[in-house]
Structures are given as structure tokens and as C-alpha cells.
Design a protein that fits this description.
Structural class: alpha/beta
Shape: globular
Oligomer: single chain
Helix content: 40-55%
Number of strands: 8
CATH superfamily: Alpha/Beta hydrolase fold, catalytic domain
CATH topology: Rossmann fold
Number of helices: 10
Mean pLDDT: 96
Distance between the termini: 49 Å
CATH architecture: 3-Layer(aba) Sandwich
Largest sheet: 8 strands, mixed
Strand content: 15-25%
Number of domains: 1
Low-confidence stretches: none
Length: about 325
């Protein structure tokens, strides 16, 4: 049972996101998308970040972003957090809470790229921007095995997409990745797209179809850089997937975990009963959110330790 603070936050989020449908459907009386984005970012920014972190702007090879540095650095490894928002919404300024929590938990610097958004910049531009941001980290002399990727929703899908692109380009692969509530299949063919209707407080199949159409433009939804369930995932590093049991994306996230496992990728799947899309944002008011973040932080520390051993061999 969700507490009243969480329910109120979800209601406020839904109120803002409900304005997207008319905009993307071409309603001439709809609000301007920039206003909805600003309202969404301001709402996200209400989630407090730890006081003992430093926040700076950063240019990630042409991709603007934010760098969060904890007061106590425990490692020279870095995390790159890829925000969600259906490739249409979101900015690093609204992710200082979750980014700051990861920075403090792991004791590592966290980079948050601000990739360009659809519909102004449809597929593949958002994905290519994040790939460029990862390339920039490598150009700074950071060993790939000292990088972990984290992302939620669309960002969770891009955790896998960036790894696939890096492998295809012959770049070093990160130590691992955490995909939170990944939007892994833009065909939306999983059974939970139907049997979780009314249980998922944030997402519906109809809304996701409209968002996917906006992002993809003329690209098919089974493109492997849009839907990682269709990607060649061989040779990828360990990946953790965390998904809420109430999510309409549940089945497709589980399909992604199976796809990874069947291709010899070490995968950790956590299905959280009663949880909703990207519940991690509410770590200050929802115990399950903090626990999920702590679990993923432990996974991050583990894969970094394993990667460090390989660097010493």
C-alpha cells in the first residue's frame, strides 16, 4: 500500500503528463510543450538531493550535462545516469535527487547528459547523444571498466543501447549497468500491457504508443537501438534490471532479462511487488524506493570491484 505522500506525488505527476497527449496529437488548443517540460522538470526537482554533494555544469563532448560530486569520494570510478521521459521529457536539473543519492551511496562522481528530445529531435538523435556522452568519458582517459551506466524508463533502455553501440564500435565496455523500469520494447507486446491496466498509476499502452510514435517518427518500433529486446546483446557486461510488479512494462522488462540471459549476459532481475514506474525517485518518502536504490548501489559496487580485479591482472 502506497503512503499518502507518494500518492499525492503521483497525482501531481499525472496531472502534468496528461497535457502531453493533446500536444503530441496536434491539438491546436493544447499547451506548448516547453511549458509542460518546464513544469515536469520543476516537479522532479522537488525531490531533494543530499546536501553534501557539489553540482556543476559540464560539456560532454558537445552534449550538455551535469556533474554531481559527493563530498566523500570512495572511488575514481564514475557513474553515468541517463534520464528517462520517453525521449520527450526530462533534463538533468530534475534528476539531482536520484543522481545525488547514487553519488553519495557509491561515493562516485555522477554524470547526467542532457540529450536532445523528440519531437524536435526524433530517433536516433537522443540515443546518439548519449552514445557521444559515453565516448567523451572515454576520451577523458577514464577506463571503461571504471564506468557504470544507470538509467530509468527510456534511460534504462539506453543503458543497453549504449553498450551495444560501444561494442559495435570497438570501444571498451563499462563495468556494468542498472536499468530501472526499462522501456525495452516499443512494440508494447507484453501481456502486462493489458493485465496491468489500472494498476500502473503512470503508464498505459495507449499513451506509450503515442509517445513511441512521436519518438520513432518513421522508424519501426523493433529497431534494435530503440527496443533492446531486439538487439544483439552478446558480450555485454553484467546488468541489473529493476521493475515494479504493477508496471505495464513488466513483461517486456522480464523479456529483456531473458534475452540477456539467453545470450550469456549475466543479469540480475528484481521484480518489486506493488511498485510503479521508476519508484526510485521517491526514496525520501517511500521505503521500497530507498531499498531498491541500496540494492542497485550494492550491485554497482560489486561490478566495479570485479572490474578492478581484471585491471590488475
Amino acid at each position: 500500500m502506497l503512503n499518502q505522500n507518494t500518492l499525492a506525488a503521483l497525482q501531481e505527476t499525472n496531472h502534468i503528463l496528461s497535457k502531453l497527449g493533446p500536444i503530441l496529437s496536434g491539438d491546436p488548443t493544447a499547451a506548448d510543450i516547453s511549458e509542460v517540460r518546464a513544469a515536469y522538470n520543476n516537479l522532479q526537482a522537488k525531490q531533494p538531493h543530499p546536501s553534501d554533494v557539489t553540482i556543476n555544469d559540464v560539456n560532454m563532448g558537445g552534449v550538455p550535462g551535469t556533474l554531481i560530486t559527493p563530498a566523500q569520494l570512495k572511488t575514481d570510478a564514475v557513474l553515468m545516469y541517463i534520464h528517462g521521459g520517453a525521449y520527450i521529457m526530462g533534463a538533468s536539473a530534475g534528476y539531482l535527487g536520484i543522481g545525488g543519492n547514487y553519488a553519495k551511496m557509491v561515493g562516485a562522481r555522477v554524470y547526467l547528459p542532457d540529450y536532445r528530445l523528440a519531437p524536435e529531435y526524433p530517433f536516433p538523435t537522443p540515443v546518439n547523444d548519449v552514445i557521444r556522452a559515453y565516448e567523451w568519458l572515454l576520451e577523458q582517459g577514464i577506463d571503461a571498466k571504471k564506468i557504470v551506466l544507470i538509467g530509468e524508463s527510456a534511460g534504462g533502455a539506453m543503458v543497453i543501447n549504449v553498450m551495444v553501440a560501444a561494442r559495435n564500435k570497438g570501444w571498451g565496455l563499462p563495468a556494468g549497468g542498472v536499468a530501472i523500469s526499462p522501456w525495452a520494447n516499443l512494440e508494447h507486446s507484453g501481456v502486462s500491457m493489458y493485465n496491468r491496466v489500472g494498476y500502473d498509476p503512470l503508464c498505459t499502452r495507449d499513451a506509450l504508443n503515442l509517445l513511441a510514435k512521436t519518438f520513432l517518427d518513421d522508424t519501426l518500433p523493433n529497431h534494435p537501438l530503440a527496443s533492446p529486446v531486439f538487439a544483439d546483446v552478446t558480450d555485454l557486461p553484467p546488468i541489473m534490471i529493476q521493475i515494479g510488479e504493477n508496471e505495464v512494462m513488466l513483461s517486456d522488462a522480464m523479456r529483456l532479462a531473458t534475452h540477456l540471459g539467453e545470450n550469456r549476459v549475466r543479469v540480475t532481475l528484481e521484480v518489486w511487488p506493488g511498485m510503479f514506474h521508476a519508484w526510485h525517485f521517491y526514496a525520501t518518502i517511500l521505503p521500497e524506493a530507498m531499498q531498491a536504490m541500496e540494492n542497485s548501489a550494492q550491485f554497482i559496487e560489486q561490478v566495479l570491484q570485479e572490474a578492478a580485479k581484471s585491471l590488475r591482472i
